Amino acid sequence: MSKLIVFDCDSTLSEIEGVDELARAKGADVFNQCVQLTNDAMDGSVPIADVFAKRLDLIQPTEALCQEVGQLYIQKIESSAKETIATLQKEGWDVVILSGGFSNVIQPFAAHLNIAHIEAVPLFFNADGSYQGFDERYPTTRNGGKPEIIHQLLEKYQPETSVMVGDGVSDLETQEHVSKFIGFGGFTPREKVKAKAKHYITQLSDLLDIV
User: Fold this and answer.
1) Is 20 known to be catalytic?
2) Residues 10, 94, 167, 171: which is the catalytic one?
3) Can 8 be counted among the known catalytic residues?
């Protein structure tokens, strides 16, 4: 039986919010502005599209900084993530990361978890490693983007059962499009997700009893 499980990355597989860590490196003022924008988007109080370009314009992330934050994902990994994913893979699950974060930053973390398939926003850099822009057409730069990619994944994998795991409102948007949605509150509990998710956990290993 084909089985698909899709994980959000930030504040789910790892404690950090990658965009906030990129901002932290640019000083307190940029960091505080970006954290507020991230929280507003993840809580559902403002559209994701309204904050996406704004945060990156504030941060101007370099290629080198993205590599540093990529290692931070690994350092701040959720304590049961690696073992849980290995167990799922042994049990025949296809595992995908679906994130509103950045593919360039998440790649080393995905490799650490032995996950080959990442769906996240590509960043573009100039020849000197300075920030050039991002793929503005990518679905997770806006609300409704994660369900759009979920449908693409369902078409690709043709699973008999599908699961999405995540902490934010953008993840919750997938609940009606998968067999099971599992809200995650191990790092940043969000009341809207906790209230509306049919399943809710605070450590990733607990999902093994649900799926």
Assistant:
1) no
2) 10
3) yes
